Amino acid sequence: THPQPGSTEGSASAGDEESGGGESAELPLQAPCGFSSSLCFSSPGAGDKAPQQDPGAASSCSRVVKSQWEINNAASEEEGEAGGADIARPPPGTYCLQAGAQPSSPQQPVSEEPDLVIEVSGRRIRAHKSVLAAKSDYFRARSSRDILRVKGVSYGALRLLIDYVYTARMGEVRHDNLAEVVSGARVLQMPCALHCAAEAMRAQLRLDNCYQLLCLAKKQRLAELREAAYRFMSDHYLQVLREPAVYGRLSGAERDLILQRRLEAGKRCLLVAEVSDAFERLSAGSRPQSRESSRPQSPSSVVSLEESSYLIYCYQEAAKEWRVLTRLPEEANVKGCAMCVLYNYLFLAGGIAAAPGEQRARLSDKVFCYNPLTDTWSQVRPLGQPRSQLKLLALDGYLYAVGGECLFTVERYDPRADRWSPVAPLPKGAFAVAHEATTCNGEIYVSGGSLFYRLLKDSYNSSRRRSADMVAFKSFIYRFDLSGSRGEQGQAGGVEVFRYNTVAKRWSQCASLRPSSGPLQPFRCAALGSTIYCVNRAGTLRFNLAQDGEVEADGGLTGSFDADLLKAPFEAKGVLLPFVLTLPEKPDKAGEPESPLVL
């Protein structure tokens, strides 16, 4: 190495004298290494001895640290022993860090050796003026100085900030030193460092520190980190809801904010989930067709031999096609289960679990939850009572598990407490199986219903109409009934739509459809915007509600079926259950339909 010009040495001597130490003899101003771009740290003490040099070393450095990782580790060890107030203290000696970034301005070339000595808290850091001036207005305004004393910035914060200037990486910024780094970045006029520090903390957001980082971001006026903390809480809303140390300390406005952001995190989309037909028999064709429909069986007495993964499809409006979104978890019981959306989470509950080695299946009490914002499944508290063929509804921030096979009981799930509790059962005279249910104006409505045990209710087989599904829109409930003519027992010839005014408490028929292509198959419904989608494996009907203000006698909107039939998901199996979720705006996952999900 070569010494700096005499003017630099003179300035250094004057600076040392002013700082009141005889340290200049132990700390030569020339860099003790030959790197073209280096960052040198030194911490001399009055009683420190110059370290013994290795005779076989190629340079005069007592030690060369080749990576920032080694510097941070060495600093952490010294800090643990000293217990000082600084963020990080390097051990005695001089360290040289190979620079990972060059200044962006070509007219400010980097000199062979550091040409600036920075003094802070009795310690010194050697660096290049041109490198610092490219990122800091503070250093640019003082570029004429060879020795610069910095106040208002801790040594550890300054070290991290200068390291960022050279490497474009913000070292080890943590929630316990973020305030010092931010304060130092503002003193040194480095706005880019503020952004980098916020990004570094954003990657460290977790449930146990998101509230602390939110408070720190508000105190330090870090808008990017504050928004990232709110986004984290929104994306992990259920976990935040169950954590009193986080949700209990948020203001009412903040609680509304993170929920609103979750519900508006993207675009509302129509999705369908494949589930197994609860009435599927053990082996098709095992009995004559004439007796197939006369032998009463319970869904739980039917065990499917085929166990394969079931998918969730998302309808792409622009491409007019269905694409795979995710898989149902393997642990879920897709036969006879129910699904519902709450807080933009998809819940799957109950079903029929096929026990290995047993001919008769057992009912399931498992409940699963899918988060579309993180694309992950999780398992929540199981039902208090195993159920199949139940209805799952969301109302006022709670889930309701209504009825089931031979069950009249109803349970309510509190997501904040993660607990199911019994509520009022279904009224006497209601059928516990195959009923339709929905929520409207803060109330639960249950309609129809028929026992699966056909011999107990002969009129079901001779009925010309059976309910397909029931959905709510504003203050009205729309029920879709499949109808067939006499002699077409068990087959549907068309669909009739009935509307219920929840204020006047009156039913009226509002539309009907008799397709010429053949009888309609049973379907399930979901409302998206002003359209009700009726989905089955043959295709999707669209029932459009008029938005031009045209109403009928009971005050309900005029509705009509769209002539075009949307195609069903390709190779879909089982029964399709439609629902609506808000999906984040991101690239399509069409190229990864078979990626496995780990629960």
UniProtKB/TrEMBL annotation:
Keywords: Kelch repeat, Repeat. Pfam families: BTB, Kelch_1. Residues 1-14, 102-111 have a biased composition (Low complexity). Residues 1-63, 76-112 are annotated as: Disordered. The keyword Repeat applies. Residues 114-174 form the BTB domain. The keyword Repeat applies. This is BTB domain-containing protein. It comes from Gopherus agassizii.
